[in-house]
Design goal:
This protein has a single domain, classed as Rossmann fold (3-Layer(aba) Sandwich), CATH 3.40.50.150. 50% of the residues are buried. It is α/β, with parallel strands linked by helices and 272 residues long. Helix 9 (214-223) packs across helix 11 (239-254). The mean pLDDT is 95. It contains 11 helices and 7 strands. Strands 3-2-1-4-5-7-6 form a 7-stranded mixed beta sheet, sandwiched between helices.
Length: 272
């Protein structure tokens, strides 16, 4: 499997580990932020794309009015299965869908929301055009993306530790994809190519990432993301060895007990 294909491989053990370890480590603070912003729009029909294991979906189900309909989609059925198994406070519709080929009519939603998913789109302008198509006039497309890897301390530390472990072929998933789409000018240009005529509004949001130990943070990043597949494809070290190297690096930087590091993302909103 090539690097671009493996970047979207969220199967096997990943959905469970992602939801149990990675969601509380880095995703929950931004889910709260994103849904609080969405609530201000008072949208009656909301579509979520790249919903993953449902951290934003769960927040929407508890935060938005009961009259708001919520459809949550993801490319990976395994991720949706995990999300549905965890459940939500009130019913939502789960549906497998490609963000670049949404199975919905024109103008079907008042808001489209996406947490840390647009970085994975092979053709971002095409996927943005689909978001624009399914939005009603005046509707809002709201999403976030990770800032530079250097501004996300745990991920940066683990990436450097794995580069030292695999010097001839360093795993670059984190830098390449989750942290590879942080240029706001590029995002604005892609949105324009996707048919959004109004310039987006953007906010940079810093938060803290916390784990009970360096080991838990290392396991979240090394085993609960497609980085796992990159590690397993390398020769000369096991997944356990990679987790151990990442743990040592995190403990050296953040301490042997509970760890606390900076995370940073951009929030983007644009009107259809």
């Amino acid at each position: 499997m090539d690097a671009k294909a493996s970047d979207t491989a969220f199967g096997g053990a990943i959905p469970d580990l992602y939801d149990r370890l990675l969601v509380p480590l880095i995703f929950e603070p931004y889910a709260i932020d994103l849904v609080d912003r969405l609530a201000l729009a008072h949208s009656a029909r909301v579509l979520e794309v790249a919903a993953g294991t449902g951290v934003v979906t769960r927040r929407m189900a508890s935060r938005l009015p009961a009259s708001t309909s919520i459809v949550a989609t993801d490319l990976n059925q395994a991720m949706l299965d995990r999300a549905a198994a965890v459940g939500t406070e009130r019913p939502v519709q789960w549906r497998q869908a490609d963000a670049a080929k949404l199975p919905f009519g024109d103008g079907a939603f008042d808001a489209v929301v996406c947490q840390f998913g647009v970085m994975f789109y092979p053709d971002k302008a095409a996927a943005f055009a689909e978001a624009r198509r399914v939005l009603a006039p005046g509707g809002t497309f709201l999403f976030n993306v990770w800032d530079r890897i250097e501004d996300n301390e745990f991920t940066d530390t683990v990436t450097k530790a794995l580069a030292a472990l695999f010097p001839d072929d360093p795993p670059r998933f984190m830098a390449r994809t989750p942290h590879g789409y942080h240029d706001l000018a590029r995002i604005a240009a892609d949105l324009k190519l996707g048919g959004f005529a109004t310039p987006p509004s953007t906010h940079t949001v810093a938060a803290r990432s916390r784990a009970a130990s360096a080991r838990l943070a290392a396991m979240a990043l090394c085993t609960g993301t497609p980085l796992r597949g990159e590690i397993e494809a390398r020769h000369g070290a096991s997944l356990e060895a990679a987790c151990a190297a990442a743990t040592v690096a995190l403990a050296a930087r953040f301490g042997d007990g509970a760890v606390d590091g900076r995370i940073q993302a951009h929030v983007v909103a644009v009107e259809a």
